[in-house]
Specification:
The structure is a single chain. This protein has helices at residues 2-12, 17-40, 54-89, 95-99, 102-122, 136-163, 166-184, 200-203, 222-232, 279-293, 301-316, 343-358, 362-378, 382-402, 406-447, and strands at residues 186-187, 207-210, 215-220, 235-238, 245-246, 251-256, 267-270, 321-322, 327-330, 333-337. The protein is α+β, with helices and mostly antiparallel strands. It has a 5-stranded mixed sheet, covered by helices on one side. Strands 5-3-7 form a 3-stranded antiparallel sheet. It has a two-stranded antiparallel sheet with strand order 1-8. The chain folds into 3 domains: 2-164, no CATH class; 200-341, Aldehyde Oxidoreductase, domain 3 (Alpha-Beta Complex); 359-448. It contains 15 helices and 10 strands. Helix 3 runs antiparallel to helix 5 (102-122), helix 10 (279-293) packs antiparallel against helix 11 and helix 10 (279-293) runs parallel beside helix 12 (343-358). The chain crosses the membrane at residues 60-85, 106-125, 137-158.
Amino acid sequence: MKRTWLRLRQISQGFWFIPAVMTLLALVLAEAGISAEETYGVPDGLTFVYGGGETGSRSLLSAIAGSSIGVAGTVFSITIAALSYAAGSMGPRLLDNFTRDRGNQLTLGTFIATFAFALYTLRTVTGSEDQPFVPHYNVTFALVLAIVSVAMLVYYLAHVTGSINMTHVANLLRDDMRDALMRATLKEEPGQDLAVAPPPEFWAGGEVLHAPRSGYLQLTDNDLLLRRAEEADVALLLHVRPGDYVFPNSVIAVGVPRLPADVIDALTLGDRRTVGQDLEYSVRQLSEVAARALSPGVNDPVTAIDIIDRFGDALCSLQDRRWPDGVYHVDHVVRLVVPVTDFVGLAKSMFSMIRQYGKGSPSVMVRMLEVFSITASCLKDAERRAVIRWHAELVREDALANIENSADRADIEARYRELLDTLANGQAAEVLKAAEHTVQQTQGNRAN
């Protein structure tokens, strides 16, 4: 079922889907208007309905059809130009964000639907003396569509200009990344212990599943895998997670003592990575924008700094969230173990590429250390703060090795010391909190 919904979502997000639906709807409305006029005619009280004859209606419909398809070609050309700019400056993987944009789809669909409506209606206009026919309802509605098309053209010009703005793109990608993070993590609950996966020896000698073909793992139906493992009374270990490229004949699962039936049905492979369960894909889209901005041909450190700010935003939002352990039990028996993205992998995907490409840019390195300090003050978990410190040490090392100006090097050192102070204050606060908790427990025991 999840695979079906994934395919339906991919189809509905296609650039052609909304224009196709609007065109079909326009043809249905055109036929309905013609049938209504043939059956009931036009009441005298409807003064707003077009009242011209055959020649006027034919000219009007021809003008609407010709102009709408002409403007549709212009809109399509502008869209292609915007896509070319986006691919060149932000990366080809961002093209999906532009083709999925509902504003672009609705604009193109409006013009094509107007053309189809006017052309379909035009064929019914007859001027014979025996039985002349003018579809007054349809001509009136075609005029309304023409006015709507003009409004959509004005909207489109403003929309496409804003959609290729780098800040707008960064915010869209940030929202996608934040939604993916919220889906991938769970609300932190006090006193909750993480489940522990069986040791590697447990899986030794199990039945191995090899990949039947290659492709990116787009979706894993964990509910189906858990149900199949419980029905077969086995334990199942997956070696791949959404976003991984699966090579043909590579090991993707192990079952102990055997594999459950139809494991491959719960794994959806495709030719490209998709936003959804693949958390790191949303992160890598932003990282690629920053890496391209730091290339010598573009040399746009401001964009890279904007991306770093978005990453800090995302990490701070995880303060009260925990990562799933990937271990599923049924009646206290391990049935399924799946690999999951953790904080270490997330931070590496965010900052490693930017650090490697921006190590010679003082402004980028300084901002990374500043964001690390802010993030360290937001995060309370000691392991996560250790990850932040590790990345800060890498940034400091690369920056000092590639930046020669003494003032810039002093800025790097100052920001790094600020980070260390922030981390030290956080550790002191944790120690104080633990001591207070111990004192409260001791006083409670004495009272009892």
